[in-house]
Structures are given as C-alpha cells and as structure tokens.
Amino acid sequence: MPETPLDAPRTWAEFADPADPDQRFRVDLSWLCSSWTCIFGSGCKGIYADRPDDGCCTLGAHFTDDEDVARVQAVVDELTPKEWEKRPKARPGEDTLPLERWTEMDEDARKTKVKKGACIFLNSPGFAGGGGCALHNKGVRTGRAPHTMKPDVCWQLPIRRSYRNVKRPDGTSYLEITITEFDRRGWGAGGHDLDWYCSADPQAHIGKEPVFRSNRGELIALMGEEAYAELEVRCQAHLTSIRTFRSVEARKLLPLLVHPATVAAKSIGGKRP
C-alpha cells in the first residue's frame, strides 16, 4: 500500500499554555488522533531497503543539547555487554565509557556513533540480550519509560515540536509551539530519498489507541502536564466528532478530519469506523 500524500488536509486546534501565558500551542489533531504506531520488528521496512532490520536507526542520532547527552550517558554507564551488542570493550582504568567511545562529531553536532552500518546502540535481530535499541530495551527491562533513556530525536520521532514567534497587530507577541507529525520533510531534503517511511504508510496505522494516548508520556515531556490535559480534551472531542460521520454521504468529509493513512487503514482512533 503506497504512502499517503504529504500535503493532505489537516485539522488543527490552538490553545493557550496553562503554564505560561506568553505561549500558545498549535496542535495537529489529524496526526494526534491517528492510529499510527511503531511497527519496528513487526513489518517495519526500514528507511533503507538494503537494511530493513535497522528501522530508522541506520544513521545514528544527533543530540539536541548537553542535557540530552548526559541522560544517555547515565544509561550507557548501566549497560552491560550482555545487553548492548556493540558496547566498546572497556580499556584499562575505564570505569565508564567516555563520550568519544560511543559518540562522534558530524561537523559541529555530536551524535551517536555508527558501527557495523547502523547506530552503535542497535542490537541485531537474534542478539541474546534483545534485538533493537539497547537503550529502549533497558527501559523496558527496568520498568522505566523508554523516552527517559534515549536521545531526544529517537523518542520524539515521529512527533515534531517546533517554535515560531508570532507578532499580533497591536505589537504584542507570543511563542507558538506546534505539535505535529514528523514526516519525511522533517529529515530535511534527504527525507524524500528515504526508501520507506512509516508515518504516512497505512501499514503503520494499526494502533489500538490514537497517538495522543499511546504517546502520552512523550507528549507530556514535550508539552507539560497541564497542556497535555488541554490537548486530551480537544483530541477526545475531535474523535467524537469523527465518529458521527457514519453515513455514506458524511464519510466523504472524513479526509478533512482524519489522517489519510488512518483512513486508508480503515482504523480511526484505534477502532474500525
């Protein structure tokens, strides 16, 4: 089934940030109420056709700031060779792995190293400690949310948060925070060259819950508890309105309200319409 168009209509909502009167959220209800779910290991084709087992982990992950690096370093210090297939061997006198052993510089940006063709944290299928991301697996094993263990870009994908300063006619301004889909364009110009990408593929729109529920922890980390509560109200109202469109005539309006890949997968809010 082909990926759906990038420029399909979207339904948006706006609301003030309860925690900061100088900020407003602009949220993509079509995406947040979609049935997308990560299908890594369960049908994911990988962003490169010749490395399907990598998922979106082939290139390694760029860090956003020092706090991002420090969070991952803390997990690195916990991981053992039985949990992390590509863990560099400890050198004499090393109690912990220094940054240069598991990260590298891409021009002026620090990122995770690429080793054996993919991110250094990617365990291969069949590895006794568990295939896939060693950081993610550590979170699952220890009962910690994986998004507290991984680089920002890894746990946010495919949710995108961006900022824009908006000036009002009276000369005042506010910070607009947009929460939407991290589609192919989020990768930059090279995103269009990826062999496959999940967010617009109906095969990945099979989740039992809509994105705003299945990614609740990630959204709270991106927005804050109070803003998430406001988002939840609007998403629930949006799903309720969608489910009223059950007649043949009304169904023609669904593409205006629902993510096109969710429409194609015939799954709305985790349920068949």
What are the key terms here?
single chain, 273 residues, alpha+beta, 2 domains, four-stranded mixed β-sheet, two-stranded antiparallel ribbon, 10 helices, 10 strands, 26% helix
Topology:
Layout: E1 12-17, E2 20-28, H1 29-32, H2 66-76, H3 99-102, E3 103-106, E4 109-112, E5 114-115, E6 118-119, E7 122-123, E8 132-133, H4 134-142, H5 152-156, E9 159-167, E10 173-181, H6 211-214, H7 216-223, H8 225-242, H9 254-257, H10 260-264
Parallel strand pairs: 2-10
Antiparallel strand pairs: 1-2, 3-4, 5-6, 7-8, 9-10
Helix pairs in contact: 7-8
Would you kindly provide a written description of the structure presented here, covering whatever features stand out?
- Strand 5 (114-115) and strand 6 (118-119) form a beta hairpin.
- The strands form four sheets. A four-stranded mixed beta sheet has the order 1-2-10-9.
- Helix 7 packs across helix 8.
- With 273 residues, the chain is an alpha+beta fold.
- The protein has two domains: 1-48 and 158-273, no CATH class; 57-156, no CATH class.
- Helix content is 26%, strand content 18%.
- The mean pLDDT is 92.
